[in-house]
Structure formats: structure tokens, C-alpha cells
Amino acid sequence: MLRTVSLACSSANVLSKTTKPVWALASAARFSDKKGDNLETELQKDLKKLNEILKSGGINETEVTNKIETPLEIAQKQEVDKNFMNFRKQAEQEAFKRSSIFNWKTVLGTFAVGGSCLAALFYIKKIRLEEREKHRKQTAGKARIGGEWELVNTEGKLEGSEQLRGNWLLMYFGFTNCPDICPDEIEKMVKVVEIIESKKDATPIVPVFISVDPERDSVARVKEYCSEFSDKLRGFTGTQDQVNKVAKTFRVYHSQGPRTSKQEDDYIVDHTVIMYLIGNFLSFSYKNQFFLDPDGQFHDYYGQNRKAEEIANVIEMKVLKYQAQHRKSLLNLF
Amino acid sequence: MTKEESSLKNERRKCYEAEKSCRAERKNFDGNCPTSWVNHFIRKYQFERYKKTLAEQGVNIADQNALSD
What is the C-alpha to C-alpha distance for residues A321 and B31, in angstroms, rounded to an integer? Predict the structure, then answer.
């Protein structure tokens, strides 16, 4: 539409420009008809000019139309874009195209990077948790030795941590047919208890012997064996299962050796040579002090290389430390 | 010569006597100890002697408790 209108306008202009002299010439020619050949020649000249002008005008006209058509064509081509000349919208669109935030590739990339970051975070957290757990286990490893136990005492009655509550226990696992180590260790244990008990405000401590050879160690035999060391020494035995259970609670290894050919019940039992210091308190009050410690709690151990005096000193230190800690924790409670 | 012979003879005699008393001691040992204990003590003695010879040869025995006694 625009094209045709403009084309019509331009052609009309050209025509009006060129036709004016044509009319003038024509009227002049009418008046100068009578004046002779001179006029005729002049008219012819004018006609020639007119023709020339017409011709040239025609050419001009086509040239003009051509000139007009070319930008129109360009306009027509650009007209397909609805946002032609709408620079604000165009700029926005350009910005939108340029901004890669909404690109699916970047979305995927973001997810990948974010995912891997999250995975790394979770991994680190997991490692930290594991470390913490490991550390907790290490510190709690102390508590994994010991616990409540029950065996048959020298009177043939069931007795254990519950009945001995309120005392510190020095526990030793052995067997009455033990050639050398057990008697030495039991003697040492009795000596330690005697040293501690000889002092003022003595800590209540009980030496305990537990047999790891229930096959040969009858109640009577254990009774006789213990009484020969000290009347303070409490001896325990039981069935194989009972003994195994207690040995497991205190992580004590024991293994029956080979029987000699001469006698069926002649053998040596290999076992852990360790003296345990066990706390045996459960909400127990002693000398206005309250202890909140489960029965059979492991506190310390003493090997064959430690001397009686040394062990006695260490135990006294341990007991003092324990009492101080529990007084503090009780103060925090109230 | 006769003196030497007699001294050699004397040495032999001494040894025989010692062997005899050793036998008696061993019999005493066996009679008073259970077989398992006898085996245990002999093994222990041998092990202690072995450790001692090793220590004398300059072998470093890390466990000092094992050497004491």
C-alpha cells in the first residue's frame, strides 16, 4: 500500500512538472499559427524539446521509481521483524539472548556443579562424623572392658558385682593349678589391698580371684586356695559358660593347654595375666559422697611388671581423681 | 702318672655321683610336681637361659621385664 501510494505521488509530480510547459507550448502554438514558418519551426523545436523532456522525464520517472523502490524493498524485508525500530525491546531481547542464565546448558552445568559441591559437602560431613565416632569410640574404649557379672562364690552361692557394690575391686583371673605366675600375682594383689587398707580413711577395696579353669576348680578347691592367701580374698568359680561369660566381659583370654599322658586332668591353662581395677558403684552413697557409676566399670589395669607399692599408689590416685570428678559432676547436677 | 690317673678316675667318680644325685633330685622333682608343671618349669628355665645367652651375645631384647627375675 505504502509503496503504490508513494509511487503514484511521485509520478503525479513528474507529470505536473512536465505537462505545464506542454500546455503553454500548445496554446502558444495555437496563437502563433498565423505568424508563419518561423513560428512553425519554433513550435517544432519546442515539440522536439517537449518530446525530449517527455522522454527524459520518462527516464527520470523510472529512475525515481527505482530509487524509491530500493529502500522500500529494504523496508519490506525488515518489516518481517515486528520489533523493527523498537530499540528498547530489541535491546532487551539482545540482553536476553546474551544472558546465559536461562540457557539449558547453563542450567545443566549449574546442576552438575551444585550437585558435585553438595556431594563433596556430604562426603566431608560423613568423614567428620566418622572421625568423631572413632574418637568417641576411642574414649569410650575404656568402658568396653568390664560390666556386671555373677559367679559362684566360695560358699557355693551366686554372687557378683551387685553384691559387691560399694567397693573398688581388684580382679585377677587364674586357676588353682597354676604353677608360678598366679600365686605370685595373687600375693601381690593381697599386698596391694593391705597397703591401701593400712591407711587412714581407707578406700573400700576387695581382692577378687576368678577361676578360668572351672573343670578342676571346684567351689571347695577355690575356697581352700583363696583362704591360704588371705581371708580377704574372694574366690569365684562356676560352670564353663558362666566363667566364659565373665572372661569375655573383662576381655580375658584363657586357653586350656595339652593334657599330659600320665594324668587326664593334668594341664596348664594359658591366660591373661592382668589385674583389673574395677569401680563397682551404682547410685551408692559412701561417707556422704554419691557415686553414679555402673557396676563393673573398668578403671585401670596392672601387669606382671608392676610392684605392689606402685599399684597401691596408682590406685589411691585413681580413687581420689574419681571422687573429685564425681563430686564435681554432682555439684553440677544440683 | 698314677696320681693323674687317680685324679681322672676321681673326676669320673664325682660325675657319676653328681649324676646319681641329679637323678634323685629329678625323681624328687617329678614326684612332687605334676607333669605339666615339670614341663612348664623346664621350658621356662630353657627359655630364660636362651634369652640370657642372646642378651650376652648383644641381641637387644626389648622387653626388660622378660630379663629381670
Answer: 51
